[in-house]
Amino acid sequence: MSDKKERTLIIAAGAIVGLFGALLVKFGNPKNMGFCIACFLRDIAGAVGLHKAAVVQYIRPEIIGLVLGAFIIALATKEFKPKGGSSPFTRFFLAFFVMVGALVFLGCPLRMVLRMAGGDLNAYIGFVGFVCGILCGVFFLNKGFSLKRSYAQPALEGAGISIVMVALLVLLVAAPAFIAFSESGPGSMRAPLAIALCAGLIVGAAAQKSRLCMVGGIRDVVLFKDFKLITGFAVIFVVCLIANLALGNFKLSMAEQPVAHTESLWNFLGLFLVGLGSCLLGGCPLRQLILAGEGNGDSAVAVLGFIVGAAFCHNFGLASSGNGTTPAGRIACIIGIAVCAIIGFMNLNNDQ
Amino acid sequence: MKTVDARGLSCPQPVILLKKAMGSKENAYELIADSQTVVENCTRFAKSQGYNVSVNDNGGEFKLSITK
Lengths: 352, 68
Fold this sequence. Notes:
- The structure holds 2 protein chains of 2 kinds.
- By secondary structure, chain A is mostly helical.
- Chain A has one domain (3-346).
- Chain A has helices at residues 3-26, 37-47, 61-76, 88-105, 109-117, 121-142, 155-174, 193-210, 214-224, 228-247, 264-281, 285-293, 297-315, 327-346, and strands at residues 83-84, 151-152.
- In chain A, helix 4 (88-105) runs antiparallel to helix 14 (327-346).
- The radius of gyration of chain A is 18 Å and the shape is globular.
- By secondary structure, chain B is of the alpha+beta class.
- Chain B has one domain: Translation Initiation Factor IF3 (2-Layer Sandwich).
- Helix content of chain B is 32%, strand content 35%.
- Chain B has 2 helices and 4 strands; from the N terminus they run E-H-E-H-E-E.
- In chain B, strands 1-2-4-3 form a 4-stranded mixed beta sheet, covered by helices on one side.
- In chain B, helix 1 links the parallel strand 1 and strand 2 (28-33).
- The mean pLDDT of chain B is 96.
- Chain A binds chain B through residues 1, 3, 6, 78-79, 81, 83, 86, 141-142, 146-147, 149-151, 211, 213, 216, 219-220, 223-226, 228, 281-283, 298, 351, and chain B through 7-13, 15-17, 19, 34-37, 40-41, 44-45, 47-48, 60.
């Protein structure tokens, strides 16, 4: 692929994500939450009964669309490759703690950008933590950090998560009594199914072709002075900012931001954990969904780690709310940073 | 000529390995990759270092010839 085509793709993908990030709020998603991989996987965990927080339960069609969009475009362009076996258990725990960090902050790196574009100053503090976490991750990468190689796997291993997403779509449409859907709170605020699903499919396909990754953007600038991925990051911010201004959804403040808290230290440390853990995983939560759709079983395990992490966050009171963090969440965040650091040190010089 | 085997490695390890290999300042390297993403990333990096890259797709396994 030519440099120009790559640049066009990443700018287009950023514009699509930024636009849908703002539009999905207009259509009913919670404010500054057009997309949030962490929040939406948490909602899915609740819908299928893995946690009982009644206000955050819904099978988010955006997630289904993201995975299936990546799956379909990868199949169509011969990039679907079932592979796995690169330290799946370690990846599960990295993802588990990435989710802890995200729910202490209240958002994945993508929602961080959308919050920044909505004027939420807490997200800017989180962003500083995110960058610092990535810098720590880069330290490990430069020292030879590796979770070892993945190898070719059977087709079903690669397609498994996409089949699960189809099953979730059936459950969403059929809405049997054993699936929980929030009647109040963020889980009850949703764009219409068809719109949310289409948005997910389009963004999933765009992210697959462009390799969009929030962590990769900053990481590649630091490591290689490569500005490709951070271009996508910047375009999401600019497009969503303009759309928010046009739709009247921009409010510059720290206090009273939607689904956010003002505890700066924990906004910083929450996203520090997300940046570090995601760097060791090889990509942000959005990227893990896309890679899973492409057939990467290790990323599919990471997605399961996110879901189980989210369930733990709500079952054990780790997740923050608009009222702030919780004591258990603060402890879990510190433990998560320590676990990621230990995983980092234990996997050095694995790169040969 | 140094060969970098980037098969099965997560981002950004293939580019880090190539960068480390390029520390020896040779005129030619070979890189083996098994994903289009790795091909794109390593091509971009090699070009930024002043190398030319030609890619040989052998049924999903890619060989990059990186030369000055």
